[in-house]
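Async update (no meeting this week)

Hi team, since we skipped the sync, here's where things stand on the single-chain job. The sequence we agreed to prioritize is pasted below, unchanged from the tracker. I ran it this morning and attached the output directly underneath so nobody has to dig for it. Comments welcome in thread, and please keep replies under the output.
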Amino acid sequence: MATVSDLSKGNFMRYNGEVVQVEELQHRTPGNLRAFYQIKMRNVRNGKVAENRFRPGEEVEILRVETKEYQYLYADGDSLVCMDKETFDQIYLDKALLGDAIRFIKEEITLLIAFENGETAITAEPPAHVIMEVQYTEPGMQGDTATRTLKPAKLENGAEIRVPLFVNTGDKIKIETATGAYVERVK
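Output:
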């Protein structure tokens, strides 16, 4: 078993039976009180943030986590079928691990998946940006670039986002997967 002083930002550990990732770690020594560690942790299953104080020397269970790149092949119910690029092994990944970014995932995209002890997937991270084609949007006017007015657009996978007025049907656009925001038009 490791102690709290062995932790660092980004480590995965088991806390109250749940897998959490350390987001912030501070060692505090208030004037006339004993020192303690203030740790901010995010639950990897539901995304909730918790803070707790630990005594120096308190034992914690640090998890061994491996990350690997997988290629997304297709959706199968509540799961995504992904393939290891090196060994061609296929795994089923729960859609909930991607959160809201699932709307902007398309076939053949590379996902970074973290595994606990080499078997159970605990996190999945999509690329920061994806390029998608606009399936339908209202036609824009020539020279509508002065204002930051946005209009709805339907993408190739059925997701809807808001884009500037100059974007037309058939254009390829770059989208930020974390927020679903339009970044730029791609040629």
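Quick observations from my side:
The chain has three domains: 2-62, 65-125, 129-186.
Residues 80 and 93 are 5 Å apart (CA to CA).
Reply here if anything looks off.
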